[in-house]
Amino acid sequence: MVLRTAGGHFSLLVFLWSVAVVQSQNVWSVTYTTQSICTLKGSTVEMSCSYTYPSGTVTSTFWFTKKFDVENYVNLINDRNYKGRVKDRSDKTNGHTLRITDLRESDSAEYKFRFITDQTGGKYSGYPGVTLSVTGLLVKVTPATVTEGQKVTLTCSTTCTLGDNPTYVWYKNGHVTTKSTSLFLNPVSSEDAGRYSCSVEGHEDLPSAEETLTVTCEDV
């Protein structure tokens, strides 16, 4: 039975809704919560996705970065480079989360999710995946050669852009000096010389290596 109102608008809406439902039931897809992540070396990251498929039962799910040939995907859990650092979990609504601890810069890669069903040809990988960039912290001194009386800027440098506009904690000779995006010494004096390092607020356990600031006296 076709439902109608004046002008037939209601029947059109019912038809469009029905088409959308049929299409969603026949789609293979993987949807990632985010497409790119920049995070600190030594920290922990989680990547999540949801997936859909037309029919059958899912028999296998896994994340991968390496594929050697058509059907040779390397499950991260079996990758010796991630041994003991990877966990994945699924939920009842076709969601899946990958967790990697103690991140290394070599973990920077594109992570993809794959699932297999009990149907003939029922396999699917989500492309593109999540691009993970892992960065350390490095103190950059500008200018490189420092003379008393100059304006000097110390920046906590990364190889990718960390999210949420982080605040950096600055240390001199192992002691906290301030919290700011950059550290400004203006004018710099011989008393400012020392070993400087930085960390991201909230991740103080992951500091940069120390950088020695040497201040040269002005010529008289």
How would you portray this structure in words?
- With 220 residues, the chain is mostly beta strands.
- The protein folds into 2 domains: 108 residues, Immunoglobulin-like, CATH 2.60.40.10; 80 residues, Immunoglobulin-like (Sandwich), CATH 2.60.40.
- 8% of the residues lie in helices and 46% in strands.
- It has 1 helix and 19 strands.
- Strands 2, 4, 5, 8, 9 and 10 form a 6-stranded mixed sheet that branches.
- Strand 4 and strand 5 form a beta hairpin.
- The protein starts with 8 loop residues before the first helix and ends with a strand.
- The N terminus is likely disordered.
- Keywords: Signal.
- InterPro entries: Ig-like_dom, Ig-like_dom_sf, Ig-like_fold, Ig_sub, Ig_sub2.
- It comes from Oncorhynchus mykiss (Rainbow trout).
- It holds the Pfam family Ig_2.
